Amino acid sequence: MERVAIIGASMTQFGQRDAWIRELLAEAGEACLDDAGVSPLDLDHLYVSNMASGEFEGQTGVPNALAHDLGALPAYTQRIDQTSSSGGAGIYAAWQSVASGASDLTLLVGGEKMTHETTAEATDVIASLTHPVEYKHGLTLPSFAGLTARRYLHEYDAPRESLAKVAVKNHRNGVDNPHAQFRKEVDVETVMESPIVADPLRLYDFCPITDGSAALLFCPESEAKQYTDEYTVVSGIGGATDTHVVHERDDPTVMGAAVESSELAYNMAEREPEDIDVAELHDMFTILEFLQSEAVGFFEQGEGWKAVEEGVTDRDGDLPINTSGGLKSKGHPLGASGVAQAYELHQQLLGNAGKRQVDAEVALACNVGGFGNCVITTIMEQA
Amino acid sequence: MSGNSKFEAHRCPNGHLSYPGHPRCPECAEPQDETVDLTDRTAEVVTWTTSTATPPGVRQPNHIAIVEFDVDGDSVRAIGQLTTDGVEIGDEVRPIYADELRDPDAGIREKASQEWDGYRFEPVE
């Protein structure tokens, strides 16, 4: 099977934006086409990763809107919703479209417009993904994080401060990301003294609510050079699904779908965890960075917290994680987040990451929907 | 819908238990064909949280736990609100009926699409 190249990438400013979903998607889509020097008229497929434009804004049918606004008619369009892993699922769909030969040029744009809602309303839109027996008790995604974090700290004797250090690290990285929502360092004390949101987790253990968009342009590897010399390759990708009902998992501290999707991705890429030089993990909550770093095989079960304590995952460590600032400081516009993870890795592999640059030839992104309900793992490499 | 919520684990012919029930057993994909009433049993707290940022129509703060029931040597877990704070991992709790766990008119989910009553967990002294 021919490998798939990424020949263009873009992301908008993340944060509180005046633009609505159509404008956000068009902004990233145009910038991505410009990055590759490709005309929208040449697109075969155009995909939009988005969780809830209907619920947030009352705008459905966004792929059609984007195709018209970008001048991409008559490209085939579809919307990809896999809750907050919609972006990763969009990469999977775009990869399928090119690898299968159905499309020679696929543009993927992920985006979400959220900040016009109150925090309570936005939390409820996201919590609507839960099972009825969870929803009726008022379960939210942050409350799953609190439940899981308590169990993790209890089982592995991890100090509460180790979670705070994830936030400290990712905020430090975000300072150097011009697209990030927050570009401000925080210290452990600030995290530990911030208000409780879902005990034992506090405000700074959580990503913000964000507007933003990001885009990637895909073609067969054999055709990449006709567009650009600056491209990366998707060498492996895998997706997996865990229980809808979170408490039905055997071990609440194991993200099964991250284990399974990463095994698929490693097998396709013929790579192992030891080969990964840089990773973007879905740190919607600080605890998720520990769980994914263990699930994708970087560290043993229950040891992820030690790596953060020892600086292994710092930008100058052996395995930098979330050089972009992660969802934690960059922001988490649901449908955009998985696409923006790949945007960061694309820049890292091309040597275009500026102050955030690390030495990397092979990179991994893990994008999570629900509380680990759906996971996409993508491995990207230098061409 | 109110006042008719059951609190039952579901069992398949291979003996696997789940709460809630599913058309097919999550472990072996056989249809589930038995129920086990959990309302008169006690459970152990696996983990808990207190959520202070709650959605519309949900009490604030919201104390929540994942608990584990022992059913004739097999375990089955459930999630739900706690009646009180101060509960710790390992504590024993029992289900207590509540006719409305959150305001069905306040959230995003269609009121008629699901039940809103159910069982909270109360510490066993």
UniProtKB/TrEMBL annotation, chain A:
Keyword terms, alphabetized: Acyltransferase, Isoprene biosynthesis, Transferase
UniProt GO molecular function: acyltransferase activity, transferring groups other than amino-acyl groups
InterPro entries attached to this UniProt entry: Thiolase (IPR002155), Thiolase-like (IPR016039), Thiolase_C_2 (IPR055140), Thiolase_N (IPR020616)
Record-annotated Thiolase N-terminal domain positions: 4-222
Keyword presence, Zinc: no
Record GO biological process: isoprenoid biosynthetic process
Record-annotated Thiolase C-terminal domain positions: 238-381
Pfam families linked: Thiolase_C_1 (PF22691), Thiolase_N (PF00108)
Protein name: Acetyl-CoA C-acetyltransferase
Organism from which the protein derives: Haladaptatus paucihalophilus DX253
Automatic annotation (TrEMBL), chain B:
Membrane-crossing segments per the record: none
Coiled-coil regions listed in the entry: none
Location of region: Disordered: 105-125
Top-level taxon: Archaea
Pfam families in alphabetical order: OB_ChsH2_C
Domain ChsH2 C-terminal OB-fold: residue ranges: 40-94
InterPro entries: ChsH2_C, NA-bd_OB-fold, Thioester_dehydratase-like
Name of protein: ChsH2 C-terminal OB-fold domain-containing protein
Species for this entry: Haladaptatus paucihalophilus DX253
Phylogenetic classification of the source organism: Archaea, Methanobacteriati, Methanobacteriota, Stenosarchaea group, Halobacteria
